[in-house]
Amino acid sequence: MGKIIFLPQAVVTKTAAGEVIENPASVVKELVENSLDAGATSIKIALSEGGKKKIVVADNGCGMCKEDLLICHKEHTSGKISTEEDLGRISSLGFRGEALNSISCVSDFSIKSFSSQEDDSQGGDSQSGWKIPVLYGKAGEIEPIGMPQGTVVEVQNLFANFPARLEFLKTSQYEFQKIYYLVLLFVLANPNVSFVILHNEKPVLEAPVHYNLEKRLELAFGHSDFFLPLEFTADHISVGGYLSMPQKSSNSFADLYFYINNRPVKWLKGLQQIKKAYGTLLEKHQFPKGALFLKVPFEMVDVNVHPRKEEVRFKNEALVLEILEKAVLDLLA
Fold it and tell me: Quick one: which of 122, 133, 181, 232 could link to 140 by a disulfide (CB 3.0–4.6 Å)?
């Protein structure tokens, strides 16, 4: 008798969800990306016990109509791409249609939303939205609810039905810190968006919309007076942001943030190229601090290479690295 079987759907669902959602920070990342893709200018994140007990992400983005809300939590549903060709020119932060489904399968989940474009014939009015609960993958009844335009997602008791993943979560403070530094990445990249984090009902981060990038650097690094502004463009690729003076370096490469088309990414080759450009201005185990924003034509970037979208590939990485090095050398000249 053969040993290979078709896996039960419950196992398939949890395996897929586990690739996208590892911890509370994964949840917050996916929800904040959705908010930014929806054009939000205000994002509020409320956490209980580091997000292990509860996560609420509320925004003032475009919102969803009833039809979209009914299917947004189902697997492989997306409003951001529709054809295979779209994968070659992705401009949104999210695109796979996995996040809400993955989150709703491993939590007590609910989502409510209101779009000002809701068709009046479907029962919408100036403040009428819809709410649908999904308990560990099983959707409840949708119901009307009064709310302003935007979307609110509530996630409770993450991984309560997934003990193998739950036992790997760390202390509430540790999980909170992961979320805090994750949100700082979005704060730096989106100066036209206000961010608020509440932890156990206490405000722990506030970045109003009028905070420019320099002010937001202060939130991330404690000060901004030792950063040098960088702007460089060549071959339709631009490099902007701030890098620290050589004498104000860090002992960790983790203090240098990369963004490709406003997407925070991990980019080892980029880090190595910047280290090379600083040359003898830095000791062997020192690294610059800062935030660099690269604008690269969408067709030159493949973002569909990592389950959590933390890495990208370039069609001509050598060119991008060359331009990056020139930008840093020009800054330090």
Answer: 133
